[in-house]
Amino acid sequence: MDRFKLAKKYQEPAENIMMNIGTLAKSKEGLLDLSIGDPDLITDERIINQAFEDAKAGHTRYTASDGSAAFIQAVIDHYKNRYHLDFSADQVRATVGAMHGMYLTFLAILDPGDEVIIHEPYFSPYKDQIELAGGVPVIVPTYEKDGFQLEAAMLERAITSRTKAIVVNSPNNPTGAVFSQETFQKIAGIAIEHEVFILSDEIYEELVFDDTFTPMATFAPENTITFSGFSKSFAMTGWRIGYMIAPTYVSETAKLINENITYSAPAISQQAGIYALNHANELIPEVVNVFKERLNYVKQRVDTIDFLHLGEVKGSMYAFINIADTQLDSVAFSKKLLEETQVLVVPGKAFGVTTGNHHVRLAATQKISVLKEAFDRIEQMTF
Ligand code: PLP
Predict the structure, then answer these.
(1) Residues 91 and 248 sit within 8 Å (Cβ to Cβ)
(2) What is the pLDDT along the chain (383 residues), one digit of tens a residue?
(3) d(CA 16, CA 35)
(4) Ligand 1 within 6 A of CB of 231
(5) Which of 90, 233, 309, 347 has the most CB atoms around it within 10 Å of its CB?
């Protein structure tokens, strides 16, 4: 792959809006930033206090490269208690966020030219990570009319002799869709039949509003590599801690690769993660309720604005809003929005082009008073 292609790609308007978000957010007074999935929440102080106590007690050194024994045990216990799934210690490894685990996995499993199926609209790093690891992304669209559910028959048609893996992301960024249990079962069946991996990005597993989440590993235990972590469920984006759970040979390879990259995940963040998982039942509902309330508010406001449309938001922290009635594409709309209202969202184009170009993603990362201000400004717009 031409690695400079990435740099060139980020000169494109859609990507540019994404990549310049940080700079914009800092430089523009009055900006209402509803772009990246980095909420305004501060990590619960019980987690912070415990982590700093642990640091003072000596948890300031490298841990074992696959994570401390206590961290790995906490992940194993969590999956046993919450989902009745049994994993062994050599399947679990601490990663510097879910994204890091995903990239290690691509490096571990892909030979040059191997294909990886991703459903679109997709979390944009997947495509770049696959290409950087020498693989070829194969895109399968999902459609708003189907509630952005992945259609199993379409997925199966995309499989070739070069397919190594299918990436699944539910609850989904950017659409907020939650795949049904039946869809998970079908994907699992296809992966087992065609002997491919499922890379299940379950970082939003707790942000499911009216249903319960069942991990993909329940349906295809031998084929599934699970990625999750603390960023979203525990409001811990900046701690950079997550984990992957994989068949032993994948986990071992990922560990060896990572010994040359970050060596281990931050010790203090692993300690924070242990506390978080051991107190998940008390800590998670507060975070979930915040996003549920905010997204309900977003839905109510969108429903009163005639040029915006939004289906039911079943999970995640995002609203993928249809802007087709404005006659603008997602980049032009986002620019106009920013210029006229100082509200920053991400154009759908940044998540793929086939289905995404008549949507923008609004992240419910700010309080309802900020969302109110944003929609008060948006409803004044004319097209
Ligand atoms: N996966 C998806 C689908 C995401 O939306 C995000 C963050 O926005 C991540 C992974 C990143 O997770 P982490 O912070 O654990 O690396």
Answers:
(1) yes
(2) 566 666 666 666 555 555 555 555 555 678 999 998 999 999 999 999 999 999 999 999 999 999 999 999 999 999 999 999 999 999 999 999 999 999 999 999 999 999 999 999 999 999 999 999 999 999 999 999 999 999 999 999 999 999 999 999 999 999 999 999 999 999 999 999 999 999 999 999 999 998 899 999 999 999 999 999 999 999 999 999 999 999 999 999 999 999 999 999 999 999 999 999 999 999 999 999 999 999 999 999 999 999 999 999 999 999 999 999 999 999 899 989 998 999 999 999 989 866 668 999 999 999 999 999 999 999 999 99
(3) 13
(4) yes
(5) 347
Ligand 1: residue of 38, 172, 203, 225 to mutate (most ligand atoms within 8 A of CB) is 203
Q: Whose CA is nearest to atom 5 of ligand 1?
A: 173
Residues 274, 280, 286, 289: what is their CA dihedral angle, to the nearest 10 degrees? Answer: 120
Nearest in space to 363 (alpha carbons), one of 313, 329, 326:
313
Kindly report whether the peptide bond that precedes residue 112 is cis, defined as omega within 30 degrees of 0: no
Atom of ligand 1 nearest to the CA of 38: 8
Q: Which of 216, 231, 243, 245 to mutate to test the pocket of ligand 1 (most atoms within 8 A of CB)?
A: 231
